[in-house]
Structure formats: structure tokens, C-alpha cells
Prior knowledge:
Layout: E1 2-7, H1 27-39, H2 42-48, E2 53-59, E3 68-74, E4 80-86, E5 92-100
Antiparallel strand pairs: 1-3, 2-5, 3-4, 4-5
Amino acid sequence: xxxxxxxxxxxxxxxxxxxxxxxxxxxxxxxxxxxxxxxxxxxxxxxxxxxxxxxxxxxxxxxxxxxxxxxxxxxxxxxxxxxxxxxxxxxxxxxxxxxxxxxx
Length: 104
């Protein structure tokens, strides 16, 4: 298992309009942050190839501005499983899912 750390900036542009007074990071923005961090690692990027796809995802808790996240990665099976935990909220599971490489 591999662990990546992510910090979601308070001024992340995705918070604009989502939602006034109760900002939360849209799921698609969270997935983009996770995928960007994964693809920054050469071995993981090679495993997923040039056109990774999302096999499944579950959003379980909101991610707020300034969140300190831990992304747990499991490459033991097919694709790359991930779990996103919010360190600032008792290690609460915010999202989980799996990326897969494009099939030839």
C-alpha cells in the first residue's frame, strides 16, 4: 500500500458557488486532485497508462476548504484502488474507488 498526502487549498476555485456558507469540494474536483497526484508518480502513471478510466467511485463525506487528506493506494489487484481519508476529521473516509488503465 502506498500513501499520498493532499491538501485542498482554502481558495481552490472549485469552492466558488459550492455552496455559499457551506463550501464543499465537488466530487469531480476531488477525483482530479487524486488522479493528478497518482499520475505524478512514474510507476503509478505507467501502471494506468496514457488514458486511465474510473471503474467505480463512492463519495462518503464532504471535503471542506483546507482539508488535509491522505490517499491510500492499493495496486495489488487490477487497476489501482484508492481511499481518501480526511485527516482533520478523525481519519473519516471521504471517498473510495478504482482507476483502471485503458484496455488495448
